[in-house]
Amino acid sequence: MSEKKTPAFKGTKEQESELLKVIEKYKGTEGALIPTLHEAQEIYGYLPVEVQQIISDGLGISMAEIYGVVTFYTQFTTNPKGRYKIAVCLGTACYVKGSGDILEKIMEKLGIGVGECSEDGKYSLDATRCIGACGLAPVMTVNDDVYGRLVPDDVEGILAKYVD
């Protein structure tokens, strides 16, 4: 199994300063962890271990507890997202109609796997469950754009729209 590609953490001093203000706002408050994590993810776009450590130090909460919360709730992510967030539906209707082949084609074209972000930060790829567009199966999204009734040969043309 290949190791996931994750761009190196590139937090700025401004982001860290903003995070420390958030921590100070919630410090000593019961139930402070989840709102702190939400605001931290707004600042950084995701919750890498470096950010979790700052929160751990600032709130006096163990890394184990923080990691447990971050990995339990689906609204939190430990992986950066690309400028173009690609998601392929693997719900039953989409999967039966070939979304697995669509996903394979995207991975081949971008050179990244599910849950990964390209090294340039341009693309990230996720597999999702039903997105409620079963009549358009198989479906993929790029940010807020929805593409349906796909075949693998459609992938290259779709990705070409997101090159800059």
TrEMBL record:
Similarity field: Belongs to the complex I 24 kDa subunit family.
Cofactor, how bound (note): Binds 1 [2Fe-2S] cluster.
Domain of life: Bacteria
The keyword Iron is annotated on this UniProt entry: yes
One GO MF term: 2 iron, 2 sulfur cluster binding
Protein name as it appears in the record: NAD(P)H-dependent oxidoreductase subunit E
Swiss-Prot/TrEMBL keywords: 2Fe-2S, Iron, Iron-sulfur, Metal-binding
Binding annotation for [2Fe-2S] cluster: C89, C94, C130, C134
Cofactor(s) for this UniProt protein: [2Fe-2S] cluster
